[in-house]
Sequence to fold (662 residues):
Amino acid sequence: MKRFKRSPLFWPTMGLCAVLLFDLIFLPGFFTIQLKNGYLYGRVIDIVNNAATLMILSIGMTLVIATGGTDISVGSILAISGAIVAQMLGPGQTARTPLAVCLLVALAVSAVLGCWNGMLVAVVGVSPMVATLILNVAGRGIAQLITGGQIPTVIYKPFCMIASYVPGMPLPFSVLIVILMFVLAELYTRKTSFGMFVESVGTNATASRYSGINAVMIVFLTYVISGLCAGVGGFITTSIIKAADANNAGYLIEMDAILSVALGGTKMTGGRFSLGASIIGALIIQSLTTTLYAWGVPPQVLPVVKAVVVILICLIQSEEFRGLLGRIGNGERKRAHA
Amino acid sequence: MLKKLLRSKYFPIIITSVLFVVLFGIGSALFEGFFSLQVFLNLFIDNAYLIVIATGMSMVLILGGIDISVGSVIAMVCMASAAMLRDHVNPYLVMLLMVAVGAAFGFTQGCLIQFFKIQPFIVTLAGLFFARGMTAVINTTSINIKDPTYVAISNAKIPLPGGNYVSPGVVIALVLLAAASLVMTYTKFGRTVYAIGGNEASANLMGLPVGKTKILVYTVNGIYSSIAGIVFSFYMLSGYTRHAVGAEMDAISSSVIGGMSLTGGIGYVPGALFGVLINGTIQTLITFQGTLSSWWAKIVSGLLLCAFIVLQRMILKNKGVGES
Fold:
């Protein structure tokens, strides 16, 4: 227990528990899970399924933020990836191009876009926010260019299964993708030296360079990984709505992804990171959303709650604020003594 | 000569203004009726609100901060004014109230950034969500503004020689731009902002009022965004939850094209005007062309942004600073 309390997962898990506890008390039936035709249905399953895109994006975003950067282009890359798949599959019941080819092409393009971001940040030395702003602005234009300004629909069955159920598995397929991506990322960052190098670059890039770490390569790679994650996120989003909406797919999702990482306790200035904590951060956001919908809050009002949560969590993480609280607490104790 | 020009601190703004002239020249050569004073003035009329937020954003960028809440504040101001005007509140009182709301909003963000050392990006991200959500709390659908004073201001045309005109919004925008430029260049406050953007720790050691200045800049930017909201409500005559979506990114890209650097301490506020005008000219060119689809505007302005960023890096490397 003591070890868990010191783990980076502690505070995010507590946050998630707080939201779920609220649901348990105030929303009867929130945790009901039904088994229909061998598939599981229920609000909790919905939360995990709807959070899939965000969880995957937060994996890439965690690594980028750990190096001290930000990637605000993921929403646009997601839209481009979705547009490519939808355009290549075509609108019919049968696929125009084999599904595997479509997915590979979309992933390759996402990786190239990630390379572009990485090159600007790591090689040219542009500040991350501006470098990724370019694709944030131009990316949706490119996605619209691919779809020709239309919103192509996809009804090809195997593709639609990505965000729904595959025969023989009770959980949505997207959950499996998340687990796979998470395990891969966790293995790559913790079983190789990559994760440690990322933390080292994020803590002090100059010192890392002097100690022989190829900081340029490390930073570059994090943006490529973030691009790839956005590409996979594009598949799931497109599969959920069964269409590629170049303008609205993943709109403002980069902000949610950054928020998940912040909720997970990774500092925006870089340094130590925890992929698991960011995933829990993404789950907090989605369960908060689902809770408020179930509570009857209109979707447009949701951002207010999000804003308050962000500020509260940042205040708790801020040393200055904790110091202030400590002083107030001490003052009260003194008064009680007198 | 060329080297001297390249090393000049006015170099980015010279490039930006030359590019604007070139773009406008291309338009005039390609399309009949493009080369007229009114087309030029329309750039100001259609982008008045953007000039205001780009000016405010430039000050924040020079400080070394960022504010991504401005677009949402515009939406909130439009919706709040529309709701109050529907209930027949005095229009001038509404404008005053909105400026006060903007100031309070900016002040709060500044305090959170300064006192609790939370990243400006995260604080203003929360601001973005908060203001957009508050817009929906006031009203989830759109409200039209029918107040006679607002309608009169919206329809007012300030005549210029040759039968051309500008809107009152343009005058407001240019006055705010001039005020910000003068303050940033000629006052102690302005120099302090540049000093903080250059190196906050040194500014602190020099005994400059870092905290006070930072909070003040965010407050001023809040006021600028709320005035931009008022200008936008003159232009649109309505309140709507999705007004000015993404305007913060337009403002940042205009400022960067205008020569501001995101690392802080570099840039001239008037450059922001040229950034806005360039983005506006691209829009106008595509409208005049007629067959090109609107998304090309996004792609072209993305490319321009990219070109300017690379240019800035080259200048910085030439001067041997900004190695990080």
About this structure: Chain B touches chain A through 47 residues (CB under 8 Å). Chain B has a mean pLDDT of 88. The beta strands of chain B are 143-144, 158-160, 164-166, 238-239.
